[in-house]
Amino acid sequence: MKNLAVLTSGGDSPGMNACIRAIVRSANHKNINTFGIQYGYDGLINNNIKILLPEEVSNTIHIGGTILKSARSEEFYSKKGREKAYQNLKMNNIDGMIVLGGDGSLTGAKIFGDEFKFNIIGIPCTIDNDIYGTDYSIGFATARETIVNSIDKIRDTAASHERIFIVEVMGRESGYLALESGVASGAELILIPENKNSMTDVINKLKKINNKKKSVIIVYAEGCKFGSLNELSKKIKDSISNSNVRFSILGHIQRGGIPSPSDRVLASILGYESINQITKGITNKMIGIKNQKPILINLNDAISKKKKVDLSLIDISNIISKY
Ligand code: F6P
To answer: Whose CA is nearest to atom 15 of ligand 1?
Structure first.
């Protein structure tokens, strides 16, 4: 193996740069060139590929986002798009590729690897932490910290004005990010899609909490299906007399910022390990982390099986967030 490529795809996540750095430097250690593909799979299709020298990743370990840029590629869904991508890899004499991304990006990697028998390794990078087979994905820890810092600030206003605050957190269909952020910020109520609650349940729970505590933080995972936050706030106002309700959608601040030390360590381990494995001939796998040790997961399992959230955390939170 002489030439490898790396790309970042889908939603960026803090720690991607630390991972790219680890890949480039580990490959260089084995006398392998790394080619950086710009703009994810779109860049692969458009031959936006250039060599990434070990010195070019200096001073990037602490930077959020991705120096390779990212995209959600429509064209890669088509066989024609993937064929172009393959031809570009061949033209550049590239014999393997490391894909950094979430669910959709790893699905693309699996299809491409199967279709062209191309050496491919995936690395889970998403703030959602919804990838099966790995305890953590790169970016999750930083996003959780950003959310907790934001909720700590919102809590000051909630407490001072005795308000009920609904804070919407990202995570797509998964409540993982919301659940851990909710516990860490001492939220009085955590609503996630995995824990089915009816609107009546929510109102009843809130009434109980509000009897004793006037300031309440509700962490609301974006995958929950209670309509708009405007509607939910109105329902709460109508059902709880004299309640003072506000909502806040944290949005993309959750995806950006300086990667936390634990994300940098995770990114370094997974980046290094991807080179270790691909040079041994391992392909069609994702490198994840289990009990603090890197592990290999079939790409097929990573994309088709569902990562479960630990619902016992909801029970713990229900007990310790109120009196
Ligand atoms: O998958 C990461 C994520 O940030 C999700 O939590 C969120 O639902 C989605 O991406 C937002 O995507 P976009 O930035 O394309 O709007």
So the answer is: 11
